[in-house]
Design brief:
The protein is α/β, with parallel strands linked by helices. It has helices at 38-53, 61-67, 79-99, 103-106, 153-159, 161-170, 182-188, 195-212, 228-238, 255-264, 277-286, 297-300, 303-315, 328-340, 351-354, 358-361, 387-390, and strands at 3-11, 14-24, 29-35, 115-120, 175-178, 217-221, 245-247, 269-271, 292-295, 320-322, 344-349, 362-363, 367-369, 372-374, 384-385, 395-400. Helix content is 41%, strand content 19%.
């Protein structure tokens, strides 16, 4: 079997999203995905990855991952690594189809049948627009967009967190992830937080606990916006509320700062879906800078790298959780990795996406039921792009053969 075609697909309505399809001389295809800077990633695939891959064996995944390692920016998850992640996912999808087996079986088999899910409280338009680096990253996050359905969870956690928590409990979610301090970080560049903004963020957590007690877990996302002293101050104020974790309070490449933060609080530190390659995670683990390791297969190097990161975390006695707030293939790969890795504890999901735009762009989503999620029995990761995507007038396609 040989690779005979590589295609990139971008939707005008989802400018951050990039899908990659890899075709073979047997007619089998594999679907990959990544998120953010789609045009830059597509340029890398066109200029570098596609010329290398055409004519090669798609099942030689480990060799391709090594051959395509970036020659610059070794520790980043820039356009090259995001492109390689999408390609790696497509190759694993192809491998599953070639062997008639789901991805988790190809990875070495399942450790469980399903896994508990927490909800990231984003809205339907969260991160939908293309955002330039010079623009504010967190003051909006799509919060001002008009609601498109019942799960406008970003507006809900900011304004009616009690009702949101009750709704999630009714649907069986193990926990909820929120980010009430981000707008305060925009005011000061994350260098400090005034008392009013600190108490406003804490009050949202307090209201959830007052309404539902400990019936649902709470994760605090901070999008790497704070400096170390301010992160420690926020963490101290949140300690009485018994959070599941504090996520990316500071830049995850500041390993020393993360270790300092971890030593200053009883709340577990989680890091980080935005890290690329196992080498970064090795430093994180060696420094004991995180209690929980977050992985995103569409950013870290694909399933090839993700399973190595999970196994390495296991040797340090650290659980892992698989990220998704970016795309449906990310969710599917996360579920397969969560079923495979024995130290996976929770799978992230965004219900506004899962019931909103995900089923519009793909078929074959993992099955969510009463707070747990499982993969389908379809070979590979189980997803195919929908006819609606392929017929979308705003679809941009590039192919090489």
């Amino acid at each position: 079997m040989k690779i005979t075609s590589i295609e990139t697909l971008e939707l005008e309505s989802r400018p951050n999203q990039l899908w990659v399809e890899i075709g073979t001389d047997t007619g089998l295809t594999g679907l990959g995905e990544t998120f953010w800077g789609a045009e830059s990633v597509a340029a890398y695939i066109r200029q570098v990855a596609a010329p290398y891959l055409l004519g090669k064996d798609p099942l030689a995944i480990e060799g391709h991952a090594r051959a395509l390692r970036p020659r610059h920016g070794f520790r980043s998850n820039g356009a090259e690594l995001r492109g390689n992640s999408a390609i790696d996912i497509a190759l694993w999808d192809l491998t599953g189809k070639a062997h008639g087996a789901p991805l988790y079986t190809c990875l070495g088999g399942a450790s469980r049948d399903d896994i508990a899910v927490y909800n990231t409280c984003a809205g339907y338009n969260y991160l939908k627009p293309a955002v330039r680096l010079a623009q504010s990253r967190s003051a909006d996050w799509g919060a001002a967009a008009q609601a498109e359905g019942p799960y406008d969870d970003l507006q809900a956690f900011l304004n009616t967190p009690e009702k949101l928590a009750e709704s999630l409990i009714e649907e069986g979610y193990a926990a909820m992830k929120i980010w009430p301090f981000d707008r305060a970080a925009e005011k000061t560049g994350g260098q400090s937080i005034d008392r009013d903004d600190l108490e406003a963020g804490v009050d949202i957590v307090r209201r959830i606990r007052a309404a539902v007690g400990n019936r649902i877990g709470i994760m605090m996302e901070c999008h790497s916006l704070w400096n170390v002293p301010t992160a420690k101050r926020i963490a101290q104020r949140l300690e009485p509320f018994d959070l599941e974790w504090l996520e990316d309070m500071i830049r995850p490449d500041d390993i020393g700062g993360l270790a300092e933060l971890a030593a200053s609080t009883r709340t577990p530190i989680c890091a980080s879906e935005v890290m690329g390659t196992r080498h970064n995670y090795r430093d994180l683990l060696e420094a004991r800078a995180a209690s929980i390791v977050m992985i995103d297969a569409t950013w870290c190097g694909g399933p090839t790298e993700a399973r190595k990161i999970a196994a390495m975390a296991d040797t340090y006695g650290r659980p892992v959780t698989l990220h998704d707030c970016t795309g449906p293939v990310s969710l599917a790969c996360g579920v397969h990795l969560s079923l495979h890795a024995p130290n996976a504890i929770l799978q992230e999901m965004t219900r506004a996406y899962y019931t909103g735009w995900y089923p519009e762009v793909v078929d074959g989503l993992p099955v969510f039921d009463k707070g747990r999620i499982r993969a389908t029995d379809a070979p590979g990761h189980g997803l195919t792009l929908s006819d609606a995507v392929r017929g979308d007038p705003g679809l941009r396609r590039w192919s090489a053969s």
